[in-house]
Amino acid sequence: xxxxFAPDDRSAMLAFAQGLPEHDLLxxxxxxxxxxxxxxxxxxxxxxDIDSLLFEEDGRILGSAALVRDPLGWSGHVGEVRxxxxxxxxxxxxxxxxxxxxxxxxxxxxxxxxxxxxxxxxSSAIELFETHGFRGEAMLRDQAIxxxxxxxxxxILSLDMMRMAERQAAFGE
Length: 173
Known about the structure:
The protein is of the alpha+beta class. The chain has helices spanning 10-18, 22-25, 35-47, 94-108, 123-131, 161-171, and strands at 2-4, 50-57, 60-68, 78-85, 113-118, 135-145, 151-160. The chain has a single domain, classed as Gcn5-related N-acetyltransferase (GNAT) (Aminopeptidase), CATH 3.40.630.
């Protein structure tokens, strides 16, 4: 079941995030496994700057997706998409379902462009985003550093929502 993140989901979200490998979180600006980061995220959801969805099964969070916006910035027309899926759940369509819902939310919000970040070795995630129309836009070298001090590149993919809508109208995709 996909549903919106609610304030009382903070503990369950923290447990979900703490179960993810560190490498899965490197594309985020902050380590989601810390309670203060979850609190800040919940506050941003309450303020309307983030739309956050959870994929839940039998009371357990199996995946999370977020659409992050900055309506006061120069890029208010751009939404950043973040999708996380529990390691033991991958390959079951959880990420695909969450990404599809986030794209629908972005359309409803009138966003013109979506961007997503990930490490370039996350080939399944890149493939998932590409099947939804995202294309590689940039590679940020040595952008993230893990707890062992190892540097990681961050790939940025983007989706032009206007072109996607035109393609859907023309080809019924």
